[in-house]
Design brief:
Blueprint: E1 2-10, E2 14-16, H1 26-36, E3 40-44, H2 45-51, E4 59-63, E5 73-76, H3 79-85, E6 91-94, H4 98-104, E7 110-116, E8 124-125, E9 134-142, E10 152-159
Parallel strand pairs: 1-6, 1-7, 3-4, 3-6, 4-5
Antiparallel strand pairs: 2-8, 7-10, 9-10
Amino acid sequence: MEITLIAALNEVFTIGINQSLPWHLPIDLKHFMNTTKNKTIIMGRKTYESIGKPLPHRNNIVISRRPIDHPEVTTFHSLDDAIEAQKEATEVFITGGQRIYQAALPIATKMILTFVESWDEGDTFFPYFNPSHWKRQSIIQYPKDEKHAYRFNIQVLVRSEN
């Protein structure tokens, strides 16, 4: 099974502030929605609460000590249990937050990361990873424009064999 971390982060690895994204990048949001549609997404409780509802057309799994009372959400107490329950899937997407990314990084086989050219501070961060352990499979650059306050790029990284 492919275990894919998908996130948007900036130059200082910020992924959030006050339980929301520090930027609005419509192209990136559309990319996220298209990439994860009809797939399993695994997130922590705080990420789920910041979204406010299950994402449509996805198998929504939330890691939480308390059950989430929603028919479209499955709750597990640990990331390991959630992944084990999806062992028949070809790919699962880890969608945050900080603790879930940290726990999933050692077992991730792929990362789809949006790198935002911003130094904005935050209170939630993507974990540091050693770039030498990852091989860039693709990169798409996007300019700053009237709908995007920052330049950014979307990269697909796969774990290297070293």
